[in-house]
Amino acid sequence: MTVRAAAPAGHRRGTGGAPRAGRHGRGGTGPRGPWGATIHAVTPIQLILDVDTGIDDAMALLYACASPEADLVAVTCVGGNIDAAQVATNTLAVLELAGRAEVEVALGREQPLVRPLQVTPETHGPRGLGYAELRSPARPLSDRHAVDLLIAEARRRPGAITLVTLGPLTNLAVAVLREPELPRLLDRWVLMGGAYRSPGNTAPTTEWNIHVDPDAAKVAFTAWGASAERHGHPRPTALGLDVTERAKITPEHVVALARRAGSTPDDLLALARGEDPGQATQSMASNPMVRFIADALRFYMEFHSRFDGFYGAFIHDPLAVAAALDPRLVRTEALTVDVELGGTLTTGETVTDWRRAWGRPPNLDVAVEADAAAFLDRFVERVGGLAATRRG
Hints:
The chain is α/β, with parallel strands linked by helices. The protein has 15 helices and twelve strands. It folds into two domains: 34-247 and 315-370, Ribonucleoside hydrolase-like (Inosine-uridine Nucleoside N-ribohydrolase, Chain A, Alpha-Beta Complex); 250-313, no CATH class.
């Protein structure tokens, strides 16, 4: 994901409502969650992340690695924020930084279905990770193509995999065209993408992930909607800019995360704000994960400072992973969404039928509210805790 310049009947989740009992299994009760909902103990949720690893994808990978309820099965790579080969290199390096070198990483489609690839070095840096420098990964990519991996793992573990897509939907569109039963084979699909009742961030009405490959988004939305209507399995959960732009990380969050990891120099806040970007303190240098997070996010924050008028960053993708692991973080409405492919000004717009004018069944559960504060607290605690175990 990149950036540029009252619920009706039928919504799947409401404030405090009971979540669907996933096929990965749930049991027991726990503490109170967002909006007072009871948190149920869960067996590990088997995740596959489909990424175009720029800065917020990297933060999402760290969040997944830091989450005890997540069983990260594999990561698949697609061209988007940066070209797909660099995405794969970034993904391997971030997983090694997190101590998860065993997770399979597969390269997928390098070009959108129909249109030429657009990348965004102005947002994520020339290699996709801002100012951050990571060692070249020590292990190779999977021998499997990302599309082959998605289909094979869904067939091998029917009803068990939660897929979270954080970039353009090219890999998923190809996979569902090859295997029409994919929506039934997966447990859930959660996506970061779209602008449903919000301005776009790439064009006036379009969000980046959908903008890069709108044809793929249309294929995937159509396939999942038709399958859900026929077979009754869950609709995809879509987190668009309407909620992800509430997940605004600030230098103070970075400082809190660094302190959670055991880094407490007085100049840490200045570093996070970019006031002294060339200085590497002994404490920061001794924790490569903290250094990586600060350097990557500083680039992202400088971008937002130039184009959006605040020094901070929207971390869209980690919120999508968090919502996949804990659906109580968001409230959704069941809506009919289509993707504009031929508009002069609006290609890539997620056209949303809020008034039910089309008379068509809903095909997405669109997030309309998110507990961003709870998510950001969780991000700081979990990723900071992981960093505490990864000191140099």
